[in-house]
Amino acid sequence: MTDRSAEDGSAVPAVAVVDAETPGNVGTIARAMKNFGFEDLLLVDPPALDPDGEAYGYAGQAREDVLPTATETTFEAVVSEYHTVGFTAVTNEDGTSHVRFPYLTPRELAEELQGEGRQTALVFGRERTGLYNEELAELDRVCAIPADPAYPVLNLGQAATIALYELRELALGETHLPDREPSWATPGEVERFHDHFETFLEHIEYPEEKRAKTERLLRRLLGRTTPTGRELTTLRGVMRKAKRTFDRE
Amino acid sequence: MTDRSAEDGSAVPAVAVVDAETPGNVGTIARAMKNFGFEDLLLVDPPALDPDGEAYGYAGQAREDVLPTATETTFEAVVSEYHTVGFTAVTNEDGTSHVRFPYLTPRELAEELQGEGRQTALVFGRERTGLYNEELAELDRVCAIPADPAYPVLNLGQAATIALYELRELALGETHLPDREPSWATPGEVERFHDHFETFLEHIEYPEEKRAKTERLLRRLLGRTTPTGRELTTLRGVMRKAKRTFDRE
Asked: What DSSP state is assigned to residue A31?
């Protein structure tokens, strides 16, 4: 049991998979862990994980670290060493039974675990039947993924993928997506664009009585979105080029 | 092309999968669609989907409807009939290239599509290489799932699962998770519990000088969470039973 911490000091949760039948699902979970920054995989009664089989085949780059460093353990050890969260598709309706109630959604769980200093284990059950009542009763928290009432039962690998995606901020300082702020056009650039467009309408001898309406239309269109500086520069370039070509004729 | 609408009038997006190689991934996507209320699956150059093969094996209950009613179509038809959103792990850094910029995260996309009246298609690319630049250039919007900079490339089926989970409110009126509000204890119930505990301490002849401190400790503990009515009732039952047993001796 390692003790890795995210930047804010919250412990990065471990992932425990109980009694999985399908090596492919273990591989899928390992890949999602790697995609979202999780490292510690705990396996309770796992299927055989052949390095040439489906678990490694489905794990992507997690075959290099998450899968080979996974720890085989027991349900009792997970319960005694970790603050535990059990995942289930089947909740109780209300507070008359506390085996599967109260529950959190993954997003609520992400908020609750922010700043949680204890090591947490996210516990996923077997493919067909999930976690048994006796198991859930031993776990500290219950988490359920909101889904269609007509078919709320997710595949094990897909459920874990969604959970790890929602909890990624516990494990990742930052994501691969670059900051997008600096590229948006400033209000001043937008105004200069509209000025340019007005001049352009004059230049192409656009009917005078229609100019205000057309300028307003373009203002409304651009007003509904946030253009980038590049978009406006490009459009102004189109108008400049049109003017030059027009002037030459 | 059906025209199903969610309760708020926004159109329920279709899902388009371009040039998938692995039938299992198509099945995984179909299952996620069924879990989150989506129905229309568009397949561009799909692999053969054998009813006894992996696509149907992975689809869960989606084998009954989403998969058999999937439409084989062309990329051009998707572009001309839908408002399109292309999914990619690889974005551009900034506004100097607009092939993969600006992009939305799935959560931002969910907000943007709320109230969108046009039919939208969520477009996913091939396993190894995703959507090509020439394809993304034809699509209206770009969406990227935030992930670990060290390994941001998700498996196709897992990426679609996360996207459909995030967009579920466009397709589902409600989820299977019951309303949890009514079960929480009211402030009055919490106070009655603390009164009961105070009486109980008296009754068990708990050292007088420690009572206030112990009561405060329990108040702080319960104050950090929201107990259900049932939890408090059960704990009060424990105290009542202890008192009865104590009285009998």
From this structure: H
Please report which confidence band the pLDDT of residue B205 belongs to, taking 50, 70 and 90 as the band edges: confident
Within 10 angstroms of residue A206's Cβ, the number of other Cβ atoms is 14
The Cβ of residue A50 has, within 10 Å, a number of other Cβ atoms equal to: 11
CA nearest neighbour of B165 among A56, A15, A107: A107
A126-165 residues touching B, CB cutoff 8 A: 144-155, 157-158, 161-162, 165
Provide the 8-state DSSP code for A131. Answer: S
Question: CB-based contact (8 Å) between A6 and chain B?
Answer: no
Sheet with A14-18, strands from edge to edge, namely A71-73, A41-44, A14-18, A120-124, A83-87, A141-143, A103-104
> Between β-strands B141-143 and B83-87, what pairing exists: parallel, antiparallel or unpaired?
parallel
Q: Where are the alpha helices (DSSP H) in A114-225?
A: 133-136, 156-166, 168-171, 187-203, 208-223
CA separation for the pair B221, B132 (Å, rounded): 55
Cα separation, A43 vs A121, whole angstroms: 11
What is the spatial distance between Cα A94 and Cα A97, in angstroms, rounded to a whole number? 7
Q: Are A86 and A131 in contact (CB under 8 A)?
A: yes
Tell me which residues of chain B, numbers 60 to 89, contact chain A at a CB-CB cutoff of 8 Å.
Answer: 60-62, 89
CB B140 within 8 A of CB B133: no
Predicted ipTM > 0.85: no
What is the amino acid identity at position B64? Answer: E
Angle of helix A106-113 versus helix A156-166 axis, rounded to 10: 40
The model's pLDDT over B52-73, given as tens digits with 9 standing for 90+, comes to 999 999 999 999 999 999 999 9
> CA-to-CA distance for A175 and A197, rounded, in angstroms?
39
Q: Can you say whether the dihedral through the CA atoms of B181, B183, B185, B187 is positive or negative?
A: positive
